[in-house]
Each structure stands twice: as structure tokens, then as C-alpha cells.
Design brief:
heterodimer; A: alpha+beta; Rieske Iron-sulfur Protein; Naphthalene 1,2-dioxygenase Alpha Subunit, Chain A, domain 1; seven-stranded antiparallel β-sheet; 17 strands; 25% strand; B: alpha+beta; Nuclear Transport Factor 2, Chain: A; six-stranded mixed β-sheet; 3 helices; 7 strands; 23% helix; 46% strand
Chain lengths: 416, 161
């Protein structure tokens, strides 16, 4: 791995409470991130196993900006490989998802054929045609597999890594993140659909957003006004291994003191009573977990968010597309044993999340607001001091401790 | 299908409805938008990639006139987004079947979006699949699905299609 150039080093005094804006708007930083983070010792969401249910099923996705295909082989094992033909570099798989009945993945350019594991099985004209041409005698197909991605299946979810030293997935997550991951993935899921959002901002602005309970009650007015979530609700913010985090909250647990404080601040988000739904069926959910938790935002660095908001469940996959663009892929799910009623509640509540989500659409907007404003101010820093200066969680949601954790972990992995 | 019932007058009436709907949104008269639907209705904006494989997830899903009104209230008073305008271009309206006072209609659309920077982009392209009924003499949408090809939604979607 390359060493980090001096001019990209983090300002010493900044610690994890101030981030130089240059990290959000630099081609050099972006290239380093792809090398050290995305091609390094990190785990990346590739698919739910429900997305590749049959032998021969496949799904095209990315790790960072590297195209990757995840497959289920005829041995029922899950594999992944970089979608780049070992011959001359063409894309092998050109479909988003599907099923290869014969288990063969052939590049269209010269029809080099691979199996689900990514091993090269066939090279047309290997021995030439009528004695002419052909590959050299010492050509060994075993030496020309696709670039393989190490995978692990954890709680019906496929993760991939390029790193040789990436820790075991549960150890990578940390205790609380693993607990909440298992909680949401505690029984077989049913995929309900996908949406894709393309945002003109640096991917880390979005990472910050998913670790930021401070903004939730202030930017997302819809959320706050109906008491779905306010910073005054019972909840907690948890940091695991610096850059992973969990935010959880229970609706309907607001303290009167906290509400009074919010009224004193005259927050524009506090319009209690002014605004009523004509059709409240949108918010008529079911309490489906015994612990009463109605909101979980689990952020697994660098590229996955797993969420429960009311009865909506979704993976959000962060795919950087350059220093100032990323794609956010939402994969929505329910459980296989959902009643028809619960399934319909989920479908209706998807109005709350996703690119047109009544309580989530602003996250794309806020990311762009930041990106637009910082272009010429790389040497300036932001301020991340809500609830102190430590990179730790707390037993409440009025904190930026999780964002400090993100930057603490980021500096380590980037060697800044 | 009794093809003879699809008269020029009916076609013209359906096209008037499709055009007036688009005009209402493009003119930012969104408070009037729910009037194009029957009280009990279904309005969906759904990615083609879901629709084609039978997955139900939509980006907007309203199954009552009240939910349509709530969308408008939210975008006026709750949601935060850049100033933006839509321009719908409609084409190829076809009445695929009719049954007395119920008409199945398909048409294509392209929505251009323009923000404050003055750039117009092709924001969302797809087709409408509609069930139109005669409600007290007036044609209204009982069901309207905007099935979109442009599955890469730039930034966010707040205004209905």
C-alpha cells in the first residue's frame, strides 16, 4: 500500500472533533480511500441471501467503485468476484441480477467462460483452428481466474472483502452492532424491492448523516412533528470499533422536561398539533419487537446501513462514484412469515423512507448542501462537539459522538 | 373489448384528463392534484425494475385521497428541498380496454426537472398505467401507476409524477 502524502495529513490539533473539508473534495483522498478502505480490511454488504436464492443465481453490485458479482454455485455455496474478464478486461456479467441455469458466466468479447466460483473453464480456440493459432502450450487456465472476493454469510447476509487480514465478521462489527444486526435479521427475510438514489455529494457526508441523531429531529420535520422520533425520546447511541455505530429509539417515550426545552428553543420542527394527517393509516404500525424499539440505524463502516424505522426494514448500500458523487441503493425487506396485514403496513410505510421518503428525502439534500459549500475551503474544518469531544456513545440521542468515532476510525485506516 | 365504444370523443376526453393532470403539476397547483382521483384510489410511483419482477416496493404509494393530500401538505410544510419545477411531456396515449364506465389507459411520459441553477435535466421517464372511471360525469383516476425507467433518482423525489 502506498504511504499517505504529507500534504494530506490530518491537522494535529483537529483530533476527531474537526474534519478538514479537503477530505470531502479531493481526488487524491478518493483514490486513497478506494485503496486503503474499500480494497482494504473492511467488510462490504453484497447481497441478502434471499436475493440469490437458487443455484446459479447472481447479483451485480460494487465494493466501492469496483464492480463485483455475487453468485450461488451449484454446490449451494456463495462466491463473489470482480466483474472483469481475466483476458482483456471486459465486463463478464452484464445483467443486474438473474440466474445462470448452466452455472456458466461467459464474457461476450471472446467467450472466455467462468464458473460461479470465478474459475476459468473454457477458452475458445485454445488449441487453435485447423492447426493455426491457439494459446501457448504452457497456458494454464488455473492461473487466469477472475479476481476473487472473499465472502462470508452472516445472518442471511453476504459480505465481501478484498483484505487478507479482515477480522471475523462479528469481531469486525463489535458486540452491540452484531447484536442489533442479529436482532433485525433474526428470521428469514423476503425481499420487497429496490430503489436507487444518486446524490451529488461525497459519500462521507452521508456516513456522518447516518451517525447523527442531532439532525434527525431538526432537519426531518415530518418525523418530528408526528412524534415518530425526537431527540428527547428514550434511546441510545453506541460506538463499536470506532467507525461502526447503532442509534436506537423507542417512540412514545418522550419526557415532558425535554419537550419543554424544545419549546423554549422555538424549533421550527416543533409544530405539535398544527399538522394532522388526513389519512393516519400511514403511521398505524405494529409493535413487532418485544423490546419496544421502533428505530434502529445501524451503520457498518464504510458502506452499509441497516435500518428499522417503524415497520420499515431496509439495507442502504453506499457506493462512491467519485469524490463528489455516490449512489445509495435501498433494498427493502420484510420477513417471510409476515401476515398480509403486516406486509401491507410495510409497503405503505415505505412512503417514509427511500428517495421520496417523507422522513428521509432530506438526507440527499443535506449531503449536497455541504458539498456545494465546501469546494474552495479545503483547509477549513467543521465542528463536531455536541455532547463533548470523545468518540463515544451515550444513553441519549443529543450527541455527535458517533461521528467523532467515524473520524477516529477513518484517520487510523487512512493513516492520515 | 367492444372497440366501437372507444369513440373519438372518449379519446379526446381521456387525453384532456391526462393533459390537465400534467398541467396541474407543472403549474405547481398541487392542492388541486388530489381532485384528479376518486376518493378511494391507488397512486403509485414504482421503479420498472421492481414492477417487472413482481416486487411491490414503490417510492410513493397512496391508497386514499387523504394520503395524496398529506403528500401535498408534507411538501409544502415539512420536507426540505431545492426549489424545482417539473415539465411533463406526454405521448402515445392508448385506451387498452373499456368496460362501460371504466377505461384502462396507458401513456408515456418524460419529466424534465429545472432547479435554480437553470439547468434542465431529464429527471424521470416512464409510462402511466391508469384505470380511469366516470365519477358523477367526470373522468377521474381510480388507479394511476407511474412505472419509471429512470431508476437512478437524482437527489430526491418530492413532487408527484
Amino acid at each position: 500500500m502506498s504511504t499517505t502524502p504529507e500534504h494530506l495529513k490530518w491537522p494535529k490539533e483537529a483530533g476527531c472533533t474537526a474534519v478538514p473539508y479537503s477530505v470531502f473534495n479531493s481526488e487524491e483522498v478518493y483514490e486513497l480511500e478506494q485503496e486503503k478502505i474499500y480494497n482494504g480490511d473492511t467488510w462490504h454488504f453484497l447481497a441478502a441471501t434471499a436475493e440469490i436464492p437458487d443455484k446459479g443465481s447472481f447479483k451485480s453490485t460494487y465494493i466501492g467503485d469496483t464492480p463485483v458479482v455475487v453468485t450461488r454455485g451449484h454446490d449451494d455455496e456463495v462466491y463473489a468476484w470482480v466483474n472483469r474478464c481475466a483476458h482483456r478486461g471486459a465486463e463478464v456479467c452484464r445483467e443486474r441480477h438473474g440466474k445462470s441455469e448452466d452455472g456458466v458466466f461467459a464474457c461476450v468479447y471472446h467467450q472466455w467462460a467462468y464458473d460461479a466460483k470465478g474459475d476459468l473453464r473454457g477458452v475458445p480456440f485454445q488449441r487453435g483452428l485447423a492447426g493455426k493459432g491457439g494459446m501457448p502450450k504452457d497456458f494454464d487456465k488455473k492461473q487466469h481466474s477472475l479476481r476473487k472476493v472473499r465472502v462470508v454469510v452472516f445472518q442471511d447476509t453476504v459480505f465481501g472483502t478484498f483484505g487478507d487480514n479482515t477480522p471475523d465478521i462479528e469481531e469486525y462489527m463489535g458486540e452491540d452492532v452484531a447484536y442489533h444486526f442479529k436482532r433485525l435479521m433474526h428470521k428469514p427475510i423476503e425481499i420487497l424491492g429496490t430503489t436507487r438514489q444518486y446524490i451529488a455529494g461525497n459519500w462521507k457526508f452521508y456516513s456522518e448523516n447516518t451517525k447523527d441523531p442531532y439532525h434527525a429531529s431538526l432537519l426531518h420535520l415530518f418525523h418530528a412533528t408526528f412524534g415518530l422520533y425526537r431527540s428527547s425520546q428514550k434511546g441510545a447511541s453506541i460506538v463499536n470499533n470506532d467507525y461502526h455505530s447503532v442509534l436506537w429509539a423507542s417512540s412514545g417515550t418522550e419526557s415532558a422536561d425535554a419537550l419543554d426545552d424544545m419549546k423554549k428553543d422555538k424549533l421550527r420542527t416543533l409544530q405539535t398539533g398544527e399538522y394532522e394527517l388526513k389519512d393516519p393509516s400511514l403511521l398505524k404500525g405494529q409493535q413487532e419487537f418485544d423490546d419496544g424499539i421502533t428505530l434502529v440505524i445501524l451503520s457498518l463502516f464504510p458502506s452499509l446501513v441497516l435500518q428499522q424505522i417503524q415497520n420499515t426494514l431496509a439495507f442502504r448500500q453506499i457506493l462512491p462514484k467519485g469524490k463528489d458523487e455516490f449512489e445509495l441503493v435501498w433494498t427493502y425487506f420484510g420477513y417471510k412469515d409476515d401476515t398480509e396485514e403486516l406486509r401491507n403496513i410495510r409497503l405503505k410505510q415505505f412512503n417514509l423512507i427511500g428517495p421520496a421518503g417523507l422522513i428521509s428525502m432530506e438526507d440527499g439534500e443535506s449531503t449536497e448542501l455541504c458539498q456545494n459549500a465546501i469546494v474552495r475551503d479545503g483547509k477549513y474544518t467543521n465542528v463536531i462537539q455536541m455532547d463533548g469531544k470523545e468518540a463515544t456513545g451515550n444513553d441519549h440521542l443529543v450527541t455527535e459522538g458517533l461521528i467523532r468515532g467515524l473520524w477516529k476510525g477513518y484517520q487510523k485506516i487512512m493513516q492520515l | 373489448m367492444a372497440a366501437s365504444n372507444i369513440t373519438l370523443e372518449l379519446k379526446s376526453e381521456v387525453e384532456d384528463l391526462l393533459n390537465a393532470y400534467a398541467q396541474c403539476i407543472d403549474d405547481d397547483k398541487l392542492e388541486n392534484w388530489p381532485d384528479f382521483f376518486t376518493d378511494s384510489c391507488l397512486y403509485r410511483i414504482i421503479p420498472r425494475e421492481n414492477h417487472e419482477v413482481g416486487l411491490p416496493t414503490a417510492v410513493m404509494w397512496c391508497d386514499s385521497r387523504g394520503m395524496l393530500e398529506d403528500r401535498v401538505t408534507a411538501l409544502r410544510h415539512a420536507n426540505v428541498y431545492q426549489v424545482q419545477w417539473y415539465r411533463h411531456l406526454l405521448s402515445n396515449p392508448v385506451i387498452t380496454s373499456e368496460d362501460g364506465n371504466t377505461f384502462n389507459v396507458q401513456s408515456n411520459y418524460a419529466v424534465f426537472k429545472t432547479c435554480n441553477d437553470g439547468e434542465s435535466t431529464v429527471y424521470n421517464v416512464g409510462r402511466y398505467v391508469d384505470v380511469i372511471v366516470r365519477d358523477n360525469g367526470v373522468l377521474k383516476f381510480k388507479e394511476r401507476s407511474a412505472i419509471f425507467d429512470t431508476h437512478k433518482i437524482t437527489t430526491l423525489m418530492v413532487i408527484p409524477i
